[in-house]
Amino acid sequence: MFLLVILALAHCSSANDAVENDLNQARTTGALDFTVQVCSSLGKCQPLATGLVVDNNWRGVYYNLCYDPKRCDKIPTVSEYQTLFGLTVSPSRTHLNLTYVANAPGPRIYLTTGPGTNSYQMVYLLNRELSFDVDLSTVGCGLNAAFFFVAMEADGGTKRYGYKGPVYGTGYCDAQLASTNKPTCHELDIIESNSLTTLLATHTCNASQYCEPTGCGFMPYPLGQTKFYGRGRTFSVDTTKPFTVVTRFVTVDGKDTGNLKEIQRFYKQNGRIIPNPTVGGNFNSVSDAYCRYYGLNNLGGLSASMTQGLKKGMVLTMGLWGDLKNPDFMGWLDKPPYGPCPVYSNPNPRVTYGNIKYGPIGSTA
């Protein structure tokens, strides 16, 4: 009996230590442990230890933890990442789960080089392929599950602006108009989606670093492919189930140093490969010709301008944002003519991104 009590106490102490270590992980290292796969050929991928941090603006605006990027001094614990921002990582560290939190909707989550470092993970996509799994089955009208890249500085603006750096989630930039503590930069939206509609878009910039807020996007629904992506088995991509998004960045000469020629897309679900739909003009990818044909903004040209952002390296950003109380909030994404909303909502939306891989074309899927 005495031995059983001793063993029980030891087990309890060990469990408490594990919980304490877990709670302190992010506080002491600045990031949540996360793993992506870097591939060399199909079936040959190696895990890369990385980290996840939340944008300093969300820490500051909603919780007064880090509003000034030059004076951040608070790093959330793992528990706070979950309770304050709705962010958890799977035990395998390969999947990010984001639950909509009404008190702080839409935090941006950035990929870093790993816990204990103060650098973002720079991803180079020219002549490369990117794939990831996503489950956005509960993401309804008025919300946007976004998986995208921005040309942030690897040091989070430490050298240029005196910011505290990636440990504190500083340095964000995008192609929207500049604002306080947010410059403009190249932006690449792999998906801006909910379970009703999806968008792939490039946002290029000119030499003066003026960037396109609207960009050049491929969006099946307004291009006439209303049955390609949506809720249920009648759609080519059934968003009530998880699926894989595969994106290829083809260069003009097939080399890593070449300029971008086009961005190709296909999906995988239930063992099927689902090609991107072909739309007017016989296009099924994003290219300079596609952007010109549809008269979409393409400042500087996809091949010339987007290439510069991709050569610099870009930072993976993930999020779930919008207004749960207002199904019209994301009208530019999901209301006619861009989508069928408002037709579906869920009071407890969440999105899961996982099995993120990148490598040479043909190596990830």
From TrEMBL:
Its EC number is 3.2.1.91. This is cellulose 1,4-beta-cellobiosidase (non-reducing end). Residues 1-15 form the signal peptide. Belongs to the glycosyl hydrolase 7 (cellulase C) family. One of its GO terms (molecular function) is cellulose 1,4-beta-cellobiosidase activity. Coiled coil: none annotated. It comes from the Eukaryota. GO terms for biological process: cellulose catabolic process. InterPro entries: ConA-like_dom_sf (IPR013320), Glyco_hydro_7 (IPR001722), Glyco_hydro_7_sf (IPR037019). It comes from Daphnia magna. Keywords: Carbohydrate metabolism, Cellulose degradation, Glycosidase, Hydrolase, Polysaccharide degradation, Signal. It catalyses: Hydrolysis of (1->4)-beta-D-glucosidic linkages in cellulose and cellotetraose, releasing cellobiose from the non-reducing ends of the chains.
